[in-house]
Amino acid sequence: MKFGLIFVITLIASTFAAHILLQDPGYVVIHFRHYIIEMSVPVLLALFIFGIFAFWLIVKLSRMPRKLGQAAGRYRSGRAGQRLTQGMIQIAEGNFAKGEKLLARAARASDAPLLNYLQAARAAHLLGQNDRRDNWLKQAYEQLPEAASAILLTQAEFQIDQGDYETALATLRRLEEDTPNHSHALQLLGRVYIELQDWRQLASLLPRLQKFGRIDADVFQDWSLRVHREQLVTAANGDTLMALWGEVPKNLRSNADLLDVYYAALIQAGMHEKAEKEIAGILKKQWLGPLVDLFGTVQGKDAAKQLKRAESWLDAHADDPDLLLTTARLCLRNELWGKARSYIETVISIRPTPEAYQEYGRLLNKLGEGDAAADAYRAGLGLVSRSPLPAIPHLDADLTQASPD
């Protein structure tokens, strides 16, 4: 369209010029250093136009190699983009080997080679070709060292996915040297510490995760609870336990699971009086089944007073199996066999559990009912066994003491 318009304008101008010049072609004389050049005006105009055309042609020819190179580059880039798209489609459809080849072939000509290398590495990872995967990541780093963080993060994710947590930890620590407090790297570190059960390192990571990690609030709370729970469980003694409990944030101290672990650890450490007092105080404000159950295992100074307190709770929680079992245990401590039996049998009728049957078996043995005790133990074991258990034979005490003939 543009060329045609120029041609028409040139044709009209030439016609107009020819009409004027044919009437009087004019005369031009050029005198230069003893040389004289004579010509008509039309010839001079023709030479001028030819000179302009020749200059234009030379300029075009000089630019042609560069334009051809640019055109070839655009072609290669377009082909690379098509291969990138096809490679991504193949990987999404599960054709990992084909997708890897397409992505690798297009990497050098691609406008986004990092994406090609990372996706090729992912395809190799899904194929289980770890050496090839690492080679693609190495090539990505060599060609794009400024993308080291993205490459290392991808490598760490592959290693975590494969369960190679020690190597992933080394990769993430290397990343930390160059990019400290990277939000995604911190989250991956947290996952690695959980898998390695390195609670001390996870505890030291939590403040940084909260500040830089952009971690989901529920996930952060779960990790915090896990750290404190594991630390409480492994506390060496009562003093260490109290110090660790002091480090638990206030918003977590009402968590039922954490309270259960803490008071179980207190009882394990022999701090029964403290456990009895504090559990009773909490149950006045909040009824928690695990703490009710723990109350029955506390060896308080005054077993009768402890039983009386538990029975007072029955007014509001008469059908609570945790409370009934706790009351039964306290009756056993006070040697109130009849009341203990009544409470345990009520528990079994409401919610039979291995613990209830275990207490029932102990009680029946004390009452001299060996066969019934064996049946109780068998019933309790049956609740945790997938296959039916054979009857447990009762050995009479007189027979076990008799000498063979």
Describe this protein with a few key phrases.
single chain, 405 residues, mainly alpha, Serine Threonine Protein Phosphatase 5, Tetratricopeptide repeat, two-stranded antiparallel sheet, 20 helices, 2 strands, 74% helix, 2% strand, disordered C terminus
Please render the helix and strand layout as text:
Blueprint: H1 2-23, E1 28-32, E2 35-39, H2 41-92, H3 96-106, H4 113-126, H5 130-143, H6 148-161, H7 165-178, H8 183-196, H9 199-212, H10 217-233, H11 238-246, H12 256-268, H13 272-285, H14 289-295, H15 303-313, H16 321-333, H17 337-350, H18 354-366, H19 370-384, H20 397-401
Antiparallel strand pairs: 1-2
Largest sheet: 2 strands, antiparallel
Annotation, overall tally of beta strands: 2
- The dominant shape is rod-shaped
CATH architecture of the domain at 302-395: Alpha Horseshoe
Could you give the order of strands across the largest sheet?
1-2
CATH topology of the domain at 302-395: Serine Threonine Protein Phosphatase 5, Tetratricopeptide repeat
Q: Helix count, per DSSP?
A: 20
Instruction: Calculate the mean pLDDT score and round it.
Output: 82
Separation, N- and C-terminal Cα atoms: 124 Å
Order of helices and strands: HEEHHHHHHHHHHHHHHHHHHH
- The proportion of strand residues reads under 5%
Structural class: mainly alpha
The radius of gyration is: 44 Å
List segments where confidence is low: pLDDT < 50 over at least 5 consecutive residues: 68-78, 394-405
CATH class of the domain at 302-395: Mainly Alpha
CATH superfamily of the domain at 302-395: Tetratricopeptide repeat domain
